Amino acid sequence: MTKAEIISKISDQTGIDKADVQVTVEALFSVVKxxxxxxxxxxxxxxxxxxxxxxxxxxxxxxxxxxxxxxDEHFVPSFKPSKxxxxxxxSSDKVKSTN
Length: 99
What we know:
Strand content: 25-35%
Oligomer: single chain
Number of strands: 5
């Protein structure tokens, strides 16, 4: 599902104009990105958590040059679904039928 499809579906379900829904969805994504860039984690009860995970410093290989390179410690964004979300997916008949 694309962002445009999400906007369309929300607009259909709520009756709100697509332009207003698009502004809201864009604002949500902007707030999530900005907050995580500032080091804040985001917790949405019943949905999940957007957290920054720390990756340790490590030595990697550049295969083409056959040399070792050092990758400094860094943070990567991660999403952890809530138990309610996980159970919803596990019990979904549509997901089971696609496998």
